[in-house]
């Protein structure tokens, strides 16, 4: 039975019978026929059956370096990485298969954590063929995977200029990722748009939406995050950004709907509870906002944003006891953010307990001496406690940080004229 009939037999589901006939044919096959049998084994993923044929062919044709490439790929399939490296190192610089060998070596060295060796291999190959599109794309991909986005861009751009296209995936999307990661958002937007027309990838769609947020195209960002959600509603990381896109448009109801959808996917995500609290506060639903923000802190006491929003909300509503209780609670849990001391200080000041407030202001001054809101509050407490000269010094410090602050300048002038 010839090889084509055996191949058809295997493809039609008669695998065991087909492999038996293939093994029988192998015993009497010529070298060319054995090479063809090898191709069938490789296509079927039968690396263990391929290896004896490869070894035999290399023994008879030691100058055919294509066989070395096949041997290396076979060794990789058998998890014999060191053997693969040995085969590839046999392919010398003058050989036509040298470039492919270097790219395979680079992949293997990366798998072994030898990034510098991998990079050296790729750069050596580039010296031999500086305009080879596959190699340029390979170097760009190498730097992209390492997170060295700035280095990846020139190589990916050159690959693009030489007309390179990935068999699967999109060069444009790789360029978009690199441009976005380096803060070149306008260029990233262009490549995301082109790349997503070539290939629809969820991670790329997330990148497009995220980049749209960075360029403040909030409507487009929301649209793309919604598209991503329609593709996979369990893509949990999209929800905080979708909420942000709606918040920037002041679409509070849509933002809260996104919060609720996100919590169905991940109800232990403290940041979603923060967003829920912010949205409800924007809708003037104070009690609901408090509940969500407290839940965020219960899940993660280190969530400084949740604490900050709660402190701001209670300060606005003059709920000073709640501010002090929260600061004490978080500090008892071991949280040490200066924000807690400051809000405790301003709460004591708010309820006119200045003797408690002033030592706290004094204590945190070194850390907050560049914060103009803090300096203004500190100055007021000092003045009320009768420390006029020190209050003037603090407001002068405020003017150094914010020279155009007319209110502080006026206070200083009035105090100096008294």
From TrEMBL:
InterPro entries: TPR-like_helical_dom_sf, TPR_rpt. Transmembrane segments: none annotated. This is Tetratricopeptide repeat protein. It comes from Sinobaca qinghaiensis.
